[in-house]
Structures are given as structure tokens and as C-alpha cells.
Q: What sequence folds into this?
């Protein structure tokens, strides 16, 4: 194997020896060879003991390790990794489900494919690469997906322009690798949603809230529900279907409001019980006069990097404080953070601070996370990015 070698500084091999798949640039002592972004490199400790091989990238995370054994990965290696991910989703009952045909097939480090996300939408696979190495593999990944799914796959779309660094030497484009369908109506727990992976956020839909949407539905009967940052209206549909008195959906994007209203129509929900508002959530919360006894706070990531984490925490605190102040007596608050750099302990401490500031008596009913098709490697706890709490406010 003739490829570049990365030598780590003394003491910087401990995480990798525990099979943590990231090598940070600051841990590197020296390099033999001059790898291009996306090249496979071998990683050694200061005593030149082999640690693993992975994709090289110019950034804070310099190497994403995909094997802790010395290998020369070929097409069959990558196909086997995808097959393992598919088999796990089959064990979860997702690949043959009659009432859910949307799920995450590959969750990066959780599926030993660091830097790679693949979401499945009723016959369409959407690839999102977070490393140049995975982006360069997109055609092999598409071929493997077609072999694994057979006739159950009609489209493979690579949507990587938004997820890869802007300063990359590679010309990144979003493209169809197989088929050309841009949207699909999918089923999630029997509810229908129209997903457009070409124009939608992320890969088109926030699959990670599947079980949490179900829980919102269970608490919605006979309640007035406010769904903020609603995007496609997922929580709103579940609330309406489970007997909410009324549901108000709020998002600053007029396009998101159109998506929500369309999904309300697709599911034949009672439109007299639903109204959507294209307005900033904080402005809506501050100005609202309507009393809500179930509020959902599911904002986009307030922090994508550690250097803005403090600012993000203050944002979560302000948002939750006003919601706790406004919610009706005996109300239920669903609150979330999808910021990976805000871990569960910090998030829950922030909600505690908001509760103290609100002066309300608050009880925790549930600790929420992402579903099983977003697995977290026990060696890479950073993979648990979605945190949530369900609070009862007296």
C-alpha cells in the first residue's frame, strides 16, 4: 500500500486506540507523503505502531478513520459496509415496513462510514457527504445501493454541495447518479409527507424526529398546540391526526409554510383546526395572545462550531425562557437541540437555567434522542447530536 502516512504526537493516540474515528490536525506530529484531500492515509502513533486508515481532509478533523485494520479498501469493502447498514435497518423492521418507508440508511460514524449520510425516501436514496473522501466514492456508493436494493430503488441523488467545505479543491455539484425523480410522497407511521430532496433542507426531511413526533401526537388530544420552526409540519400533522383542538405552525420561511399546508392537505386533516404563520419564532412567541398548552421548540442548529457555542447556549436559554413564561398552566413543552457541540449535559443545564428564570414549577417527563436508524457508536459519543426534553409546566 503506497500512500501517505500520518504520525501522531506522543500521547495523542489514546482516543484512536479506543477506536474513536477522528484524528485532529493538532494531534499530528509529521507526515510522510503529500496526500490530496480525499486520499486514503495510514495513521501511526509516535512509535510508528499502526492505528488505522481513513480519509484525509484539510481541516480541524484531518483524518476520518474507517478501518482500524491495515486494508486496501475496494468496491466490495464499501458495498459490505452499506450491506451491514441495510441489514441493521432490516433488523429494526424498517426496510419492509408497511407504514414507514422513510429512514436513515447510513449514519456516518454510527455505521462505520465516517463522513457519510444516506437517507432513504420510498425508493430514493439521498447521499450527503461530509468528507471529500466519501464524495469521491459517490459513484461506487450508487452502484452498491442499486445492487442492494434492486428494483426497490428508483433514484440516487448526491446532495453534497451544502455539506462539504466551500474551500475544497474539488468542484462539488449536486447530481443524480441514478434515475431523476426529484420528490416522493413518503409514509411515516402512516402519515404522508411530500419530500423534495433537490430543493428541501438537508436531504429533504428531518427523519430523526420520527418517534418524537409520535410522542407529540400522544400528548396532543384536546390541546392547543404550537409547532415552532415547523419546516414541513411534521409535528403539526401528528397533533392534528391525534385530536388536537387547534394547531398553529410557525416558520420564518414562507416556503416552509407552503410545505406544511401542503402536507396538511395531503393527510386530509381538518384545515379549520390548523393555521400557519410565516414569521420569526421569537417574534411570534413575544407577541402571541393565544394560549397554548403544548409547545414544540425544534430550532435549527444554533451552533455548528465550538467557537459559537456560548452564543448558542444563550439563544436556547432565551427561547425556552419565553416559552416557559407563555405556556398555559399544566402545559407540556417539547424542546430540542440538534447542535452536536452542545452535548446533553450542557443542553439540560441550559433548560434548567431557563426554568429558574421563568419562575415556573417544571417537571421532566421524558429525555428524548434520535431513533435507532441514527445509531451512535459507543466509541464516538459525538454521534448523539439530537437532544430533547418533554417538560410539564405547572
A:
Amino acid at each position: 500500500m503506497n500512500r501517505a502516512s500520518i504520525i501522531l504526537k506522543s500521547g495523542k493516540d489514546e482516543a484512536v486506540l479506543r477506536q474513536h474515528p477522528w484524528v485532529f490536525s493538532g494531534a499530528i506530529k509529521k507526515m510522510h507523503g503529500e496526500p490530496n484531500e480525499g486520499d486514503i492515509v495510514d495513521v501511526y502513533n509516535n512509535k510508528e505502531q499502526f492505528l488505522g486508515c481513513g480519509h484525509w481532509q484539510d481541516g480541524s478533523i484531518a483524518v476520518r478513520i474507517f478501518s482500524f485494520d491495515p486494508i486496501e479498501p475496494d468496491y466490495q469493502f464499501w458495498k459490505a459496509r452499506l450491506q451491514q447498514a441495510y441489514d441493521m435497518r432490516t433488523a429494526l423492521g424498517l426496510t419492509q415496513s408497511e407504514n414507514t418507508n422513510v429512514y436513515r440508511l447510513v449514519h456516518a460514524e454510527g455505521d462505520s462510514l465516517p463522513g457519510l449520510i444516506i437517507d432513504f425516501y420510498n425508493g430514493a436514496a439521498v447521499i450527503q457527504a461530509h468528507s471529500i473522501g466519501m464524495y469521491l466514492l459517490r459513484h461506487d456508493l450508487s452502484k452498491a445501493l442499486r445492487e442492494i436494493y434492486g428494483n426497490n430503488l428508483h433514484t440516487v441523488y448526491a446532495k453534497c454541495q451544502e455539506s462539504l467545505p466551500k474551500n475544497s479543491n474539488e468542484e462539488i455539484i449536486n447530481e443524480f447518479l441514478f434515475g431523476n425523480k426529484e420528490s416522493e410522497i413518503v409514509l411515516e407511521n402512516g402519515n404522508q409527507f411530500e419530500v423534495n430532496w433537490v430543493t428541501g433542507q438537508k436531504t429533504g426531511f428531518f427523519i430523526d424526529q420520527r418517534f418524537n413526533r409520535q410522542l407529540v401526537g400522544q400528548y396532543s388530544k384536546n390541546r392547543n398546540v404550537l409547532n415552532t420552526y415547523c419546516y414541513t409540519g411534521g409535528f403539526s400533522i401528528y397533533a392534528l391526526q391525534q385530536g388536537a383542538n387547534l394547531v398553529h405552525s410557525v416558520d420564518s420561511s414562507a416556503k416552509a409554510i407552503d410545505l406544511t399546508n401542503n402536507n396538511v392537505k395531503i393527510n386530509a386533516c381538518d384545515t379549520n383546526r390548523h393555521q400557519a404563520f410565516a414569521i420569526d419564532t421569537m417574534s411570534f412567541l413575544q407577541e402571541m395572545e393565544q394560549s397554548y398548552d403544548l409547545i414544540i421548540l425544534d430550532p435549527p442548529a444554533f451552533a455548528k462550531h465550538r467557537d459559537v457555542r456560548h452564543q448558542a447556549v444563550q439563544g436556547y436559554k432565551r427561547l425556552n425562557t419565553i416559552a416557559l413564561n407563555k405556556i398555559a398552566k399544566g402545559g407540556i413543552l417539547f424542546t430540542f437541540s440538534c447542535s452536536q457541540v452542545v452535548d446533553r449535559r450542557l443542553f439540560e443545564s441550559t433548560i434548567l437555567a431557563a426554568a429558574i428564570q421563568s419562575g415556573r414549577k417544571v417537571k421532566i417527563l421524558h429525555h428524548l434522542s434520535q431513533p435507532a436508524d441514527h445509531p451512535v457508536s459507543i466509541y464516538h459519543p459525538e454521534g448523539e447530536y439530537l437532544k430533547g426534553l418533554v417538560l410539564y409546566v405547572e
